[in-house]
Task: inverse folding
């Protein structure tokens, strides 16, 4: 009888204890309990097992340890009881906070904050060269002032396809009187400079691609929304894109673009973008500049909202805040209340529409409900809806002047010393392209009098 081969054992997940702090003078987008629930989902996505949590309300963070000394003693007891190996804070900790907390809680416990956790998740989910470079840059910029055990944990955990996220590698001999910490910092700064140079090449390539795309006059529709709202499912429904879909946070990270035919035979490029989240690390926003520019340069945004989530409206606010941060809040938006197939009463979605401004539509990306109406609305916004604008275009931007004449409706045109002043109407898909040249002053200054 053949001997049964034992199945490979799965290593146990690390046990994490969560800490949430509500600062009375710094109102949060989500209530403390809901924010901790989201942190628990992030921890699970990162492969951690949540074994407990505690909260504290403060007027301001403690300068040394963020939380009070009594709460630290309570956490030490709870960590021993739950056998936790990681203490995970829902707030971003300063390097000083990390050092003091590690000393107070002991060497057997690692301290991580929400930012470190999100960076870790992004590292696991980045697969393209660009995504790997972006995440690696964000991680190194976060680690530079925090060369502690939390940093070595992230270095060990970081993944997503290679690169140098997993180790320092190639550290040379120390000079006279130079500490290992100084060597590490110097090596990290060198790596950051290299990564930024590589990403500038990526950004330049994207700019050339966008210029080529603009010449083809095919509009771009960017799918934006809170993480796990259903953007990838929607793109799959529209274009059979086979984008990876999972019921978890940040299931997809690298952008995917597909061509979609609209009613009337028009074509548009639909781009699935990284999901947003409250307290999105600033390092990620900076590192993902090239990718986020795809959103800022889009002709139309489809804001996908998970209408079944208890904090749907707050999540939508977080998305709007991020769009403003990346200077994409001027682009026309259609809000899609997704997952109505999961509602006990689909009419509840109709009631929810009243809470959102602008063009709003209830859909189910999974079941295909409302998709035809959505495509009709997209077609109207891109090709049939004209907006009144007044722009002053420099003479060297002759391509934009021609584009206004070809695609827009010119009411009045004046040649001034500062450029061509055009008053007229433009289709919604072109508004973003003319945004830098919007002219709000109704009267020309004496320096700009008509020639």
Result:
């Amino acid at each position: 009888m053949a001997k049964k081969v034992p199945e490979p054992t799965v290593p146990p997940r690390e046990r994490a204890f969560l800490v949430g702090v509500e600062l009375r003078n710094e109102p949060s987008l989500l209530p403390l309990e809901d924010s901790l629930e989201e942190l628990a989902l992030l921890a699970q996505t990162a492969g951690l097992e949540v074994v407990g949590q505690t909260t504290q309300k403060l007027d301001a963070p403690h300068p040394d340890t963020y939380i009070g000394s009594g709460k630290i003693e309570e956490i030490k007891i709870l960590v021993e009881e739950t056998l936790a190996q990681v203490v995970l804070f829902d707030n971003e900790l300063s390097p000083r906070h990390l050092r003091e907390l590690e000393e107070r809680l002991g060497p057997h416990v690692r301290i991580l904050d929400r930012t470190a956790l999100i960076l870790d998740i992004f590292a696991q989910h980045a697969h393209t060269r660009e995504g790997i470079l972006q995440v690696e840059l964000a991680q190194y910029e976060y680690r530079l002032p925090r060369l502690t055990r939390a940093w070595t944990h992230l270095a060990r955990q970081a993944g997503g396809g290679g690169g140098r996220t997993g180790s320092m590698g190639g550290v040379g001999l120390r000079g006279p009187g130079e500490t290992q910490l100084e060597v590490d910092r110097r090596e990290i700064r060198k790596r950051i400079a290299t990564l930024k140079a590589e990403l500038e090449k990526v950004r330049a390539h994207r700019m050339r691609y966008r210029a080529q795309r603009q010449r083809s006059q095919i509009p771009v529709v960017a799918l934006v929304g809170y993480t796990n709202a259903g953007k990838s499912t929607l793109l799959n429904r529209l274009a059979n894109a086979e984008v990876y879909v999972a019921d978890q946070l940040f299931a997809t990270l690298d952008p995917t673009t597909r061509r979609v035919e609209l009613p009337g035979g028009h074509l548009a490029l639909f781009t699935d973008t990284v999901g947003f989240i409250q307290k999105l690390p600033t390092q990620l926003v900076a590192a993902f500049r090239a990718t986020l520019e795809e959103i800022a340069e889009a002709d139309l945004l489809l804001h996908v909202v998970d209408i079944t989530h208890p904090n749907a409206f707050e999540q939508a606010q977080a998305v709007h805040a991020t769009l403003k941060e990346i200077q994409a809040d001027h682009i026309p938006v259609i809000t899609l209340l997704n997952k109505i197939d999961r509602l006990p009463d689909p009419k509840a979605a109709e009631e929810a529409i009243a809470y959102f401004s602008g063009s709003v539509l209830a859909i189910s990306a999974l079941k295909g409900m409302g998709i035809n109406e959505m495509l009709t609305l997209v077609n109207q916004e891109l090709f049939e809806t004209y907006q009144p604008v007044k722009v002053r275009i420099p003479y060297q931007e002759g391509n934009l002047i021609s584009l206004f004449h070809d695609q827009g409706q010119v009411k009045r045109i004046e040649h001034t010393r500062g450029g061509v002043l055009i008053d007229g109407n433009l289709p919604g898909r072109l508004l973003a392209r003319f945004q830098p040249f919007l002219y709000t002053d109704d009267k020309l200054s004496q320096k700009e009098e008509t020639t």
